[in-house]
Amino acid sequence: MRHYLITVTLSALLMVGVSGCSNSSPKEATQSQGQTENAQPSATTKAVSEIDTTGISSPDGKTVVTLTARNGQLRYGVKRGDEEVLRPSRLGLRFLEGQGFDEDLIITNVATASRDEIWEQPWGEQRVMRDDHNETALTVQSKGSGQVMVVRVRAFDDGIGFRYEVGRQEGLTNVTITDEITGFNIDPQSTAWWIPSRKYNRYEYLYRKTPVVDMPIVHTPVTIVADTGTHISIHEAALVNYSGMSLEQNRDGDLEADLAPRPEGHKVVLQTPFVTPWRTIQISDDAKGLVNSSLILNLNEPNKLGDTSYFKPGKYAGIWWHQHIREVTWGSDVIHGATTERTKRLMDFAAKYDFDGVLVEGWNIGWDGDWFNNGDVFSFTETYPDFDIEAVSAYGKQIGVQLIGHHETSGNLTNYETQLEDALDLYQSTGMSVIKSGYVADGGDLKWIGDDGVARYGFHDGQRAVEHHLHVVKRAHEHGIAMNPHEPVKDTGLRRTYPNWVSREGARGQEFNAWGIPPNGPNHVPNLIFTRMLSGPMDYTPGAFNLRPNELPDVHPDLPRNDPRSRIEHTLAKELSLYVMIYSPIQMVMDLPEHYEARRDAFQFIVDVPADWERSVALDGAVGEFAVIARQERGGADWYLGALTNETAREVDIDLRFLGEGEFEAQIYRDGPEADYETNPYDLVITSQRVTQTDQLSFNLGRSGGVAIRFKKL
Ligand code: NOJ
Ligand code: CA
What we know:
alpha+beta; twelve-stranded antiparallel β-sheet; 38 strands; binds 1-deoxynojirimycin; binds calcium ion
């Protein structure tokens, strides 16, 4: 299936002038030279004198990237048809040592290539993936130093990606990046959906919708809609050995990469040869196109771990919500939650409904006292006396339910790293294959001890954190274990390369509905779907059946419930739809068993819905307002569909063409006529009807309502 074409432009003349970017599609103009992942200009490439302008277009010809080097400055701009999506924006890196690659630059060579390749995900929202792109690699020289770097640009039908590549060369061995000057120059009046960066709560903020000009420094992915309706998402792919990129606004609309600083203030320290993460811009005519894009995964490297079949997608219950709504405690101070007894009961519940695992939080020594600020004292091998890890895992084995591990670090990387092997050994010996980890610490307060024995502090997306996560993922793989970090570094598609990095948090999840003021609110999930979810799976932990848990009576005088303003501002049907709307290969069934047993009818949807998909398609939506997504079960013929809305009630019309051949029984869980997240969230109607692909369905979603459907193939 692999098909890779490389061409080297031999004459500067061909490329000079704007027409150079569109006068020929590389596919037509090239000769095959076999596969090459790193199309570095080779010996066959003739170094040419200065090239002023060059470019590249997407396979469908719609998106054109133009690259220029004028007055020593390198810029790129992006057009889609006649529309200027990105105005000319700077490219470059500043180094502490030598001249770097920000000024005084010339393009000395251009090599083009293209690829159209099919690849498969071992698990995912889509099994078969297509990577179809054109590529151009510019050799850029610093006139003063003679040093060179390559800027590699790939254009896909769903957007573009580019990165910097710096080879080993004289005077460039150890490199300190003081600044990356990559710009994203857009119309300041476009509408943006964003969360702030470098704040204490990491990625856990409600999304704001403002004109671009009103954005502070923001995290990516950030979603921006132009007044023409063109949607873009700016993010990055393959964040390895580098610092995470936020975006700062220099002048109105002139966004610039702002890398998370290291403790000493520089951005990245590394050695040549290196490549930076890809800077990505997904481009679509509409909101659903962003969700259907596979650009981020296509820009990541293929699987480097080999067999990760120890990880199986699935659903899990847990001793988790119990702590958040103050039924029990993590520590042993009031009512210790993680007991052998309670775990076995939850395992019985999981086995009864064929769920795969049970997460247990608070099983290990270190939770007593102020665990938020206590990362130094966590043990990852010592259990509380009332939790018998051997007994529960043996019990789980008997009834076919796995223990899911939990490692809360409270942001102390060194304390975790020094215990990691022992911790993984212990969990591996129980037969466990997934660990949820946690990095509860304020932004900028991740802690580690340097080689000199002195404590350092950094951001959750700084270079040290990036290295830490990959280290843990690789070590976990050696133990046959998959990772699901909370308070993580953001996702940049590394699950393709490291398929045991299965999910993560990295946004406000369900927990905020237990104690957050305000809670997540009606438009949070419609925001997430078109922002955070573009980066990869999220362990949101859906499935609340008691939507007002803080109105339950206290279970202990020393454990009063949280403020009742914290609650789930969804209808029950919307909560069910989350299993389709928010993709994760491990989905929590987060509420207490008794709340599910009380609504056995509605619970059936959660029992049925899978966590692994053959294909997924976003059918409709508007950022922050509503979304409709359909997914086909992997290894089965059934389809599932979810739709949800923000605080506005609306009708959604669904064309069933996606079903393909055959007849289906549509088992529908929809908002009833009175459904409203404030006044009647439990008004749910469950019906069933026969449908085929020629049918249309139409639903009235209540305020913050939804619908969840299983299409069972007949
Ligand atoms: C924050 C995580 O997001 C949550 O799921 C977990 O229960 C707590 N930390 C404790 O580790
Ligand atoms: Ca969290």
